[in-house]
DNA sequence: CTGAAAGCGCTTACAG
DNA sequence: CTGAAAGCGCTTACAG
């Protein structure tokens, strides 16, 4: 195999539209026209130009183009207040990217850490958002507090928010948002448990998160419509979701009456529950049934595989991107809110009573 | 809370450097100078200009700037042949982003699927790489075959490759690359097992992947230097790494002599082993010890937590970005290869004999 | 220190 | 159908 590129060649001078025009013996406007395959150019001329383009290896400068178009066709995916791109958001990002690249748009990835108590104008936005003309709009993911929303509005940057992790926002405030249905997810999973004969069903989830509260509401709704008593399992202070699950299991085992099934606030909590129960020799689902929420990659790898609520993450990303594009093309359009459905997935952690 | 933005305002006409010049009563060159805080501008003028900038809410157009600079300060993180951004690559991406944003550079995320058998010039590159002037360079991640490398070289796009997943490349071919030390990782973990008194140690990993082969080599080295016999566990055809681990466990349990410890090709394989052993009632680490590789997020959540080899993923990303920037600033520079160290992490899956 | 001018690589009316 | 010109929003010598 030959060594390619010794690193000693001079950087080739960029060939421009003018070089091509000269080579093809036409004006620069004509080159631009065949490039944009717009107005009529005679086949003969077009062929000559294309030939010159190929011979010179010409590729039009995208930046120059954008400045005229007043649009960069770049959007930003902004992940806020996460110390790590969990697979959940990774999937959303993928959805954004796939939809964007299909329409020849590009996706910039950026990260932001901020406090909900910082004044909007004091939030130190990432460079991407400080520059002007670099991006056309932004998709907000991660945890979103009102001050960030305010800030983004203040700099007049078009945006769409992934709404499930919005915290502390009242319903009056309008903006474009895409989310999935927390409520219906636990409504389905709890109803399923009830259909399988369960009556004593507990809920284990950290209610300080609004999305977990919505899931709690779905659970309560299912319980109520079956005249069953909702029970929230409240462990002492936990360190993260997995630990919350573990502490919840301890709580359950210490209690007098033991539920026959538990609805977990998410898959991580379900994992913690499973871990702790197993360690105490309590078998899932033989002795206690368990359902999660989110359908993380690992859910299917648990033993037995976790019955949980599936969220269509790629679709969320795609819908965010789609909505942002609509906003960009119709700035006057009314704000829209989309809630995508969730679906309960039966696997191995629920026993029929 | 007031409703902000009814969506009916006219899109404000962009204020340009000329507006500011007029408002401040100076020439446009002066505006540019204070913007770039370059050459000397009298304090008095500078103040007047800044005042005008603030009053008009002017933000310079980044695109226009870039076209003059002949540099976009945008790089692309290209993930190849992955149907999903695993946390491993997510971490690398984060490293790239953190280093980039510190130097006011931006990171475009793009995805590519291609076959190793496609001719280089036939590879359908993502839009980002087809455009000219959009990005300054690219960081190659995911599985990299020689044809992709060729293609990137052919379009004269500066690049750095994350080298651990490069497949089918001979050593003659030079390019900038950053990787981590597969060999040393298993060398350390296997030596540790030996120190703990283990003698019958098997290796379970899919050797069709070059990086797993390097890990196998590290394992063999440790065995050889202790005059122990390396044993590769070869299960029948498996579907993915977890399944490979499960099938390996079956193989072990079916065998006549059972190793006291197993070095897994990666954490997923270790998880598969653990799952299958547990199901057969074989306790880890009481009856069999286990070590993984990669230190995935889940490793610490296993029960007991997995002893494994830590890879500094963020650092890999940062180093890739750093190297790409060096390449951009010194196109003539000799190619460099960096191998970052790995570290064995003791947790709960190894028993002392 | 600062203004007027030329120029970056394109697109797009305006004439013909 | 096509060329010459003006212009996008900036930067950067060139004079003064």
Characteristic key phrases:
homodimer; 434 Repressor (Amino-terminal Domain); Rossmann fold; 40% helix; DNA-binding
How would you describe what is shown here?
2 copies of one chain form a homodimer. Chain A is built from 12 helices and 12 strands. Chain A is α/β, with parallel strands linked by helices and 353 residues long. Chain A has 3 domains: 17-69, 434 Repressor (Amino-terminal Domain), CATH 1.10.260; 74-180 and 314-341, 3-Layer(aba) Sandwich (Rossmann fold), CATH 3.40.50; 182-311, 3-Layer(aba) Sandwich (Rossmann fold). Chain A has a 6-stranded parallel beta sheet, with helices on one face. A 4-stranded parallel beta sheet of chain A has the order 7-6-8-9. In chain A, helix 7 links the parallel strand 3 and strand 4 (159-162). In chain A, helix 5 crosses helix 12 (313-329). The radius of gyration of chain A is 27 Å and the shape is elongated. The first copy, chain A, starts with 16 loop residues before the first helix and ends in an 8-residue tail after the last strand. At the A-B interface, helix 4, helix 5, strand 2, helix 6 and helix 7 of A face helix 4, helix 5, strand 2, helix 6 and helix 7 of B. Chain A binds a DNA duplex (16 and 16 nucleotides) through residues 14, 16-18, 26-33, 35-36, 38-42, 45, 60-61, 63-70, 133.
């Amino acid at each position: 195999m030959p060594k390619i590129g010794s690193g000693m060649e001079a950087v080739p001078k960029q060939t421009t539209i003018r070089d091509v025009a000269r080579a093809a013996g036409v004006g620069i406007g004509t080159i631009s026209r065949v490039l944009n395959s717009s107005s009529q150019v005679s086949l003969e001329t077009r062929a000559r130009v294309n030939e010159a383009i190929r011979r010179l290896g010409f590729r039009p400068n995208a930046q120059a183009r954008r400045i005229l178009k007043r649009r960069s066709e770049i959007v930003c995916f902004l992940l806020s207040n996460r110390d790590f791109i969990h697979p959940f958001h990774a999937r959303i990002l993928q959805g954004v990217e796939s939809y964007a690249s299909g329409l020849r748009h590009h996706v910039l990835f950026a990260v932001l850490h901020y406090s909900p108590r910082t004044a909007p104008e004091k939030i130190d936005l990432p460079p991407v958002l400080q520059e002007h003309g670099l991006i056309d709009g932004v998709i907000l993911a991660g945890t979103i507090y009102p001050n960030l929303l305010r800030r983004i509005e203040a700099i007049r940057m078009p945006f769409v928010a992934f709404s499930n992790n919005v915290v502390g926002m009242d319903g009056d405030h309008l903006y474009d948002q895409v989310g999935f249905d927390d409520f219906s997810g636990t409504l389905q999973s709890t109803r399923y448990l009830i259909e399988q004969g369960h009556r004593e069903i507990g809920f284990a989830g950290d209610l300080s998160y609004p999305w977990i509260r919505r899931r709690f509401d779905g659970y309560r709704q299912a319980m109520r419509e079956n005249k069953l008593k909702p029970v929230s399992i409240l462990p002492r202070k936990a360190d993260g979701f997995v630990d919350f699950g573990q502490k919840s299991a301890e709580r359950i085992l210490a209690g007098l009456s033991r539920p026959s099934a538990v609805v977990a606030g998410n898959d991580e909590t379900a994992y913690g529950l499973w871990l702790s129960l197993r360690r105490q020799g309590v078998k899932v689902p033989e002795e206690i049934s368990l359902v999660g929420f989110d359908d993380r990659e690992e859910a299917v790898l648990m033993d037995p595989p976790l019955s949980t609520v599936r969220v269509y993450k790629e679709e969320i990303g795609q819908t965010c991107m789609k909505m942002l594009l609509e906003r960009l093309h119709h700035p006057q359009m009314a704000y829209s809110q989309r809630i995508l459905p969730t679906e309960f997935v039966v696997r191995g952690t629920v026993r029929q009573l």
